[in-house]
Amino acid sequence: xxxxxxxxxxxxxxxxxxxxxxxxxxxxxxxxxxxxxxxxxxxxxxxxxxxxxxxxxxxxxxxxxxxxxxxxxxxxxxxxxxxxxxxxxxxxxxxxxxxxxxxxxxxxxxxxxxxxxxxxxxxxxxxxxxxxxxxxxxxxxxxxxxxxxxxxxxxxx
Amino acid sequence: xxxxxxxxxxxxxxxxxxxxxxxxxxxxxxxxxxxxxxxxxxxxxxxxxxxxxxxxxxxxxxxxxxxxxxxxxxxxxxxxxxxxxxxxxxxxxxxxxxxxxxxxxxxxxxxxxxxxxxxxxxxxxxxxxxxxxxxxxxxxxxxxxxxxxxxxxxxxxxxxxxxxxxxxxxxxxxxxxxxxxxxxxxxxxxxxxxxxxxxxxxxxxxxxxxxxxxxxxxxxxxxxxxxxxxxxxxxxxxxxxxxxxxxxxxxxxxxxxxxxxxxxxxxxxxxxxxxxxxxxxxxxxxxxxxxxxxxxxxxxxxxxxxxxxxxxxxxxxxxxxxxxxxxxxxxxxxxxxxxxxxxxxxxxxxxxxxxxxxxxxxxxxxxxxxxxxxxxxxxxxxxxxxxxxxxxxxxxxxxxxxxxxxxxxxxxxxxxxxxxxxxxxxxxxxxxxxxxxxxxxxxxxxxxxxxxxxxxxxxxxxxxxxxxxxxxxxxxxxxxxxxxxxxxxxxxxxxxxxxxx
Lengths: 157, 501
What we know:
With 157 residues, chain A is mainly alpha-helical. Chain A has 6 helices and no strands. Chain A has helices at 12-34, 44-63, 74-86, 89-108, 110-125, 130-151.
């Protein structure tokens, strides 16, 4: 009995093409260092690595031929399927909160922004439970303060 | 000799080191057991916190975390059918059926004792082989180091994922990230794109925290609603006769664990798979059929994954090559503390080697103590909801990254690597090869240039040396065979051979 071929994931082809493009850009940057001036120059090894990236991303694309196409109808359907599969609302909201958190650290201080980030993500991911989320966030802040400021003595943002 | 003994017992006699090893082991058991937390994640975050500590204190904590973490995954694999760590995936095959049959306590007890036997066996091999290997490594030419690093990275690419091409891409990508910054020889900027910030390079801990911490946190958001199944746990300490019965299998799989662990880039996860396969093929009359609660199916992977810890230290301490992702992080810790992992470590700082050996033994003793006690509290803690865990991981990643250089730009980089890691992860790229690439990239660059300089930049002389020097010839042959073994050439050769039969 022959083994059923693997199916490509939605968005996999586009991603692998992007990797090939990226590898090309890395090659360009590596070439900019010293060109092909010497086999022992600062740019020689980076050029070698970038060529390996190009070759392996081409091999990844060639391997697609052995796989079945994704179960989608057209590029738009593939895009929506990709987003649905890998970017559920949880991931998107968490990612947005994480970016906002990092942006808020310097203007609003580490402890205030961390408390807000923890409280909001706990409330969102636990679908409510506001009071317990606020209490847990406050306890977490206290633990972070004791652990990192007093025990590990590291600089906090 | 007396010096060696005093180095060996350093962690045993210093109350602070003793306490740190104990805390590390206990914390490691929980880190390894809680799905979503990994030893690699914990070690990479801890490196930044222990940056300013004395090297022995930092190492004691990380060794404890490493030993405890490799074992910890088995507990949740047995109790909840959720392996807390990749090295415990195989443990769930027979561990969970045992728990369903009311034998959770005995399964945990047996896996603890076997893990400790594996851990001690791996440490014994480390102590006996590393000094010899280290002497041998002193005779290696830069070309041989280059070949060993290439071989290691190739093995990582082959063994750590489903596709060789993706593995090689990951390694090369890691290498490029590792080369960002000023060239140490000519001071030319490489991949800096004119940015002064990038002239100093990208700290590999930033990459590690991003790829192992943030990417994993994003990935775990897919499994928020998974409800664990609770099991009844009673008698834990296994009968001595039972331990004795499975000792021969344990020693055989211990050897497998050490060898797989010592191969650069392969760790407990692959060791446990090989050991399980070995047990299935060699044990004729298992206690129950494999997959339905065979004790042999528990003994083999648990011994092997802990034996792999000692194995992973061998190439790290003798060649400066990491055996797996955690030893890659430990290499970084040693470098940060001004040490020189590789053959010179045994000559310049023998106390670090013997301290590590003594510390590994101590961590295994603590593993036995903590592994056989406190199971009731443990079952409560590991059920910590991911909705609480994931945001806390992100905060820890921020604190860990910032504490490296007090630089917010590095924190943004860390998030960027986290998002990149998430994309790579969903399309089947492994994080381990990228990290090994980041660490080994600069070493490869350096040894390649030294090797080329030694032959007057002559490519033909370099290639000739690959086949005329015995060690280089062996290493080159292994590299060629590994490459060919992953191409259609292998199928063609096997076909020809079968036809000729």
